[in-house]
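A favour, since you know our structure tokens better than I do. Would you make up a two-line entry for one protein for me to read? Write everything out right here, beneath this request.
=====
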Amino acid sequence: MSDYGRTDNERLLPWLALCLALLTGVFVLTQGWFGGFREAQALSNHLPGWFWQSLTVLGDERVLLALMLPFCRRYPRVFWSIIVAAVIGGLVSRGIKIWLEMPRPAAMFAADQINIIGIRLTSKSFPSGHTVSAFSFVSVWLAIGGWRLWPLLPLAVLAGFSRVAVGAHWPFDVLVAACIGVLGAWFGVKLARRWRWGLRVRPHRGLVCIAALAVATLPFESQGYPDSLAVRLLVCVWGLSAFAIHYLLPLLRGGWRGGVQSDSEA
């Protein structure tokens, strides 16, 4: 991460989005909008419900912020880009949900035809917000950190698949959301490179503090997936411990001095 100019890694994101779009097109032509759900659920039923609940919270923005907190001080540009990308992806996702309110699987299948894990959702299916968040987070890291971080991509895929496994989304919702997440990350990285407000000392600290406050709610709010408590506790401790080490302790020892840019990104 020696340079914050446009990189070859960043240029690959549109191609990744194109591949996902082509895959989505082939899927909807062969399976239809609501196709593939039963097959995906049949596959997911081989694993216990707590496993899918633990995976699906990887699309929770608070969990992603917790995973990011240990790296905010060293890689502030990644953190700022993730924030910008999350706003872009979130606005697009929520806008589509409001404009095109599609039924979720639980609204179209009888209770004995679907496996609901956790909360039962019936409306605003398209697209999957959890999948948008997961792919946005991972794609920013790939764009700035390099494709040596490609093992993060399967985690985003699993987070997306988990939305079908828990009965919350159609496969088509997840595929489109993955495209939105990747494109949101691409635009987010480009915008964050030009609009560097979040790299200033005070805004950076403020954003980190807001992130820490959000992370602190993880043990108390499951968003309908109570069996994910162990994962939520683990990432909460991970994130808040890093926040205390990198931000609170320096403050107690005499304040945060200098900028937020690390030597590794200079």
Remarks:
- The mean pLDDT is 91.
- The two ends are 9 Å apart (CA to CA).
- The CA atoms of residues 29 and 97 lie 22 Å apart.
- The longest helix spans residues 8-31.
